Q: What sequence folds into this?
């Protein structure tokens, strides 16, 4: 999830929500709201983008959210979205501007969400991202998916 991997968004970020916000919102509610409601430690939102998924996670859970978004253009939209929500929810969000593998997050989350990002990463970056996810998981965390993910980490920690 390096800064260069987000370079393509420099041109399209301002149109991202116009093109797919409603679809992304519906999918995020369907895919992530139930799991977010069960989170007790914190939620890791990998590739938070414009914050649509982040907003759903905040609405569904009382847990803090770590939103990781290294692309400045997408992060600007994320921060704008966060500015428009209530202060109580906004206070539960920490935005990390660096790639996940550089954020040094250790055992902070019991749920990790990576919506529309992992498959877009080149294989070496994808592996580094999965390693960083496994480092960020708290000991009680688990991995589950409704579909086969490329280079997915083990279902349980070693």
A:
């Amino acid at each position: 999830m390096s800064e260069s991997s987000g370079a393509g968004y420099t041109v399209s970020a301002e149109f991202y929500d116009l093109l797919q916000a409603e679809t992304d919102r519906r999918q995020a509610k369907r895919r992530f709201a139930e799991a977010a409601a069960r989170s007790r430690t914190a939620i890791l939102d990998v590739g938070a983008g414009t914050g649509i998924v982040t907003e759903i996670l905040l609405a569904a859970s009382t847990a803090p959210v770590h939103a990781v978004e290294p692309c400045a253009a997408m992060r600007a939209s994320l921060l704008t979205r966060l500015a428009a929500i209530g202060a109580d929810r906004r206070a539960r969000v920490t935005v990390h501007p660096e790639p996940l593998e550089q954020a040094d997050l250790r055992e902070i989350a019991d749920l990790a969400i990576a919506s529309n990002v992992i498959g877009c990463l080149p294989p070496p970056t994808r592996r580094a991202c999965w390693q960083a996810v496994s480092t960020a998981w708290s000991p009680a965390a688990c991995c589950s998916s409704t579909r086969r993910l490329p280079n997915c980490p083990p279902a349980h920690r070693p």
In short: The mean pLDDT is 84. Residues 143 and 154 are 8 Å apart (CA to CA). Residues 9-38 form the longest helix (30 residues). The longest strand covers residues 43-46.
